[in-house]
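Reminder to self: tokens first, then the designed residues, so the page reads top to bottom the way the pipeline ran.
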């Protein structure tokens, strides 16, 4: 296997950079999968399909339903409870997430149902950190898509 130093020395700048980025991503993923439960993109898709079927209200002029959406913490306008902030600080200490998102149900009427997830650039999975309120729970969403054998047990 080519090493970063060897590639650099031989002038393979781009290959060296990509190898460094891949190694960094792998380290983050190992930590995230080791410490947190996760959602796959398929979990979210299936959950949203089921939620839409359950909440769809349609007439000749409107079509309303609820959908699980993800908002970056930077764009989230409500202060989470203290215990959520503490769990987020612990997740930050682990050092594997590039950003964090809040999962909530979106509809015409606002629904208070946040879940805090850690995210890693280059990985479609979301890593559960904490939740508050009772409208949607991690357990309601997880397992809706395909999952690795290690998380199913």
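Designed residues (153 positions):
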């Amino acid at each position: 296997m080519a090493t970063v130093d060897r590639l650099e020395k031989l002038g393979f700048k781009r290959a060296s950079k990509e190898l460094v980025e891949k190694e960094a991503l792998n380290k983050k993923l190992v930590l995230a999968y080791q410490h947190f439960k996760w959602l796959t993109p398929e979990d979210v898709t299936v959950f949203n399909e089921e939620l839409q079927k359950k909440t769809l209200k349609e007439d000749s002029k409107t079509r309303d339903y609820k959908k699980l959406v993800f908002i970056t913490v930077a764009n989230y306008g409500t202060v989470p409870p203290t215990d959520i902030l503490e769990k987020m600080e612990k997740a930050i200490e682990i050092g594997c997430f590039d950003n964090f998102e809040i999962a909530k149900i979106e509809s015409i009427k606002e629904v208070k149902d946040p879940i805090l997830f850690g995210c890693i650039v280059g990985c479609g999975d979301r890593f559960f950190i904490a939740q508050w309120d009772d409208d949607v729970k991690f357990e309601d969403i997880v397992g809706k898509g395909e999952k690795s054998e290690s998380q199913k047990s």
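Residues 108-112 have pLDDT under 50 and may be disordered.
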